[in-house]
Design a protein that fits this description.
This protein has 232 residues and is α/β, with parallel strands linked by helices. The protein has one domain (2-231): 3-Layer(aba) Sandwich (Carbamate kinase), CATH 3.40.1160. It has eight helices and nine strands. It has helices at 9-12, 19-35, 48-64, 71-93, 127-137, 171-178, 192-200, 213-220, and strands at 2-7, 40-45, 115-118, 142-147, 152-153, 165-166, 168-170, 204-209, 228-231. The protein has a seven-stranded mixed β-sheet with strand order 3-2-1-4-8-9-7, sandwiched between helices. Strands 5-6 form a two-stranded antiparallel ribbon.
Length: 232
């Protein structure tokens, strides 16, 4: 069984790389791999804090020069941050990950180890879309999307105290929430371009907290967990 996970950069490197999380996460994955020799994981890592800080520096420098900010350039900066984070996770996983970090999920991918790492491909979408393409290629039953939020909410809970968590939502309703357009650094539970493709291929996506490892263990074990299922 191959499990595909979109691993948010906000949990790998919220500001700088989180060594404690990486250690605990690696221990959990190794425990699951050792318990089931048929199991494999694909982790597609986001840009997190490094992407946001470097994109912000680019925007400020261009504005100070009186020059236009180009979204494609900001996106490439974000893509490179995902590759740094993915290389870090690959190194932490050690011998379980034998293949190079995948940077183009649109072509057939070699997967010879137990863990495969992937990163951003090109401008126009986030690493969520890359994860969706890999889930399609490896015929995954679902895509697990791990970020710094436990569930999808009806609104931004930081701005609206009346926002409520959602256990299940249809693609139609979810896409109405996140919109159709991507912008570099856009902060949504699952990016619009990835959502459109996941909807088209009828892929189920489960959004959950990446930091809550006991909950993640339950999710990966097929037990009751806290999160949001997007499907239908």
């Amino acid at each position: 069984m191959t499990t595909v996970v979109s691993l948010g950069g906000s949990i790998v490197a919220p500001d700088t790389a989180d060594a404690i999380f990486l250690k605990d996460f690696a221990l959990l994955i190794k425990e699951l791999l050792d318990a089931d020799q048929e199991r494999r994981f694909i982790f597609v890592v986001g840009g997190g804090g490094p992407a946001r800080r470097w994109q912000q520096a680019y925007r400020k420098a261009r504005e100070a020069l009186g020059a236009a900010v180009v979204d494609g350039e900001a996106d490439w900066i974000g893509v490179m941050a995902t590759r740094l984070n993915a290389q870090l996770v690959k190194a932490v996983m050690g011998d379980y990950c034998k293949d190079d970090v995948v940077i183009n999920p649109s072509v057939p991918v070699a997967f010879t180890g137990r863990v495969l790492l992937a990163a951003g491909w090109k401008p126009g979408f986030s690493s969520d879309y890359d994860a969706t393409l890999l889930a399609e290629q490896f015929k995954a039953d679902a895509l697990i999307n791990l970020s710094n939020i436990a569930q999808v909410y009806t609104d931004d809970p930081k701005k609206n105290p009346a926002a409520k968590p959602i256990d299940r939502v249809s693609w139609k309703d979810f896409r109405a929430m996140v919109g159709e357009e991507w912008a570099p650094g856009k902060n949504v539970p699952f990016d619009p371009v990835a959502s459109r493709h996941a909807d088209a291929i009828k892929l189920k996506v489960i959004c959950a907290s990446g930091k809550d490892l006991p909950n993640l263990k339950k999710l990966l074990a097929g037990e009751a967990f806290v999160g949001t299922e997007i499907s239908g």
